[in-house]
Amino acid sequence: MKPIQLSYLVSVLLFAAVGCENNVNKIPEATKPTKPAKSLPLTAQNSDVNKVKLVIPEESQENPYLEAVREFADNVLKYGRDTYGPKHTPLFVDGLNVNTHEPVTWIEPNGDRWVFSNPSSQQTFFRTLEGLTTLTGDPKYKQAAMEAIEHVFDHLQTSNGLLPWGGHQLYDATADMTRGNSVHELKGIYPYYELMWKVSPQATEYFIEAFWSGHVLDWSNLNMNRHCYELRTPFEEPWKYEYKGGPIFLEGEELSFFNTASDLIYAAVELTRLSENKDPLVWARRLAKRYVDVRDPKTGISYGMYTLPEEQKVPDSYDDVLKKLVPGATDFPVSTFPGGMINPKPVSVALAIGCRLRG
Hints:
four-stranded antiparallel β-sheet; disordered C terminus; alpha+beta
């Protein structure tokens, strides 16, 4: 049987379980910190977990969906923690074989085996763990998620605030070290900042500000790259720049992929919600507006970037190829974009989606 990834299986089950549980008490929100610190001990911050007493309707205890999620979480807590290598940690591995409970391993050409723990792939699971604590009154689930997050903050966060997660970096539990290349990238992850904030408001804010400062190359026009190559260089304070805007498409070498931008937007919005600092929200709206500005005038479909590297210029004859591949593509020709500059892959996807929506 194929191994399972921890984050994805539980989502539908949990949503089904909570559908009728509107009367369950909610765990109190964390308050804003009053003094600087990278991370506070869990015993000092988890009073909301340790003291919570929930009133659970009787029918919720017999909910088969809830019990399925709880059984899954119990197995992950039992078999899915980092017990590999010389140093055991509260981290979770990225996947387990459902029959043997062995972790998913990456096998190198030389035979070395890596056991991956990538916190970015576990954000849905962390939401699930807190949801189980809310529904069942058992604090162990949320506590386990917070312990993993605290370990990431205390032991893996870089000096400039970034984290070794996402598409290019992760933690190898067998060697107790970070693997991957020197690139930070998040694409469509949407971390659970609310729980991260409960663990350490300071470390969470530090990361979000580093996320923006590392990926935004020019604050005056929000020229942005999906990759950040500065993993340890100190960043300047964000948000306090003058925004001038600029042309609809920016020419340069950067790849302003929307799936990274959406993570930046989400992070800034969450920071405003959690800290009550309105500056991040202002910049989130400016970045979102960039993608509104590059919508096709006929279909309303946005191009996947607002930066256009020179090498991505394509001839107008590409229009003819798209017309053959996707019926209805004449409504969204490449030549409608300024300069005929376009990335073929996002347009192909956009065309297919647009044609499906039109029936």
